[in-house]
Amino acid sequence: MTGQLAFVESPVQLLNVLEWAHTQAPAPGAPRTAPMGAPHSADATPPLTVVVLSPTDPMSRGQLRRMAQLARDEGVTVHWQEARGGRGALVRTLRELARPLRSAERVIIGDPFSRYVQLLLTLFGPRHLTVVDDGTATMEFADQIGRGERLVRWHRKGNLGPRELVLAPVTSLARRRLAPTRGRTVEIFTSLPVEAPEGIEVTENSFAWTRTRFGPPRLISGADLVGTSLVETGVVDAGHYDRVVAELARAHGATRYFAHRRESAEKLHRIAVETGLQVVRPELPLELIARRGPVGRTIVSFPSTVVHTLPLALAGTGVKVAVCEIAPEWLRESASPRAQGFLSGVAGTAAHEVDRLTTRASTSTDRLGFG
Whole-prediction pTM value? Predict the structure, then answer.
């Protein structure tokens, strides 16, 4: 088997594949990666091909297009697959990817919870598998694999609906393919505090590629706020979220709001009108945007991956990162019972240099302070 094959569905996944590839680069004087399609020696790094399983939303597609160009600039072969492009797309994608999957020496995936990736994993049993971050879900993945549980995203309720029942055999087989065996190694490449089960290797993602290629950024006065899709995923009440964003903007002198790619246009318009914040839809993952600058001297985020990644990407720049913890009363009644504990864990395990912001009153968001 030859080559390394990565499947990505989001800009952050592709960024972390590039970070992983950077750690695999040969030392000075060692054989370099052979061009795709050319024979390579046993000592050279196997060639890497990235398959973009394109999403449908325009913002994700735009960011992925730009990330794909960055990957090509690094000498990576990128194949854009319209995996969700109407009728017949699924069958066509499976047919086109079956042979590369069977011949790949290593497969890299960004989202083990993805039904698409799980379906692809049923086609083969990879000898070497690497999982890179696609957000804080990596923490939940490691826990669920370690406990032998069904793979379920943390914000989803545990009950099986009709779709989940149909896909249950696929998910069950994919879970087995994501676990290490005598003939298969599994690696988690992460910037998050992951406790991997026995047999899974954890490799730290220090964002060395990002720091090498971009910045340091020019710092500007005031703060930047980082948006979240917790409202869109049904976890946090929209009214509470809007009030907290307004209070954070006043308390920290923020002028910009960096939108999550899944935030709705209606919500972002409301935030811009009610707070006066400039809403920015980033063209690249926030780690790259912040590293290239300009960036505020303080970045305030809700519990998300960036409270773990930005301190690494911005190390040595003087930028302070703060996380605003989610109070229980902000959660919607329909939120998963696991939501509060998971979000508290994300905030609580952030790097020690990250400031923690908490509400001082139990039922009001009028006052926010450092915890």
Answer: 0.86
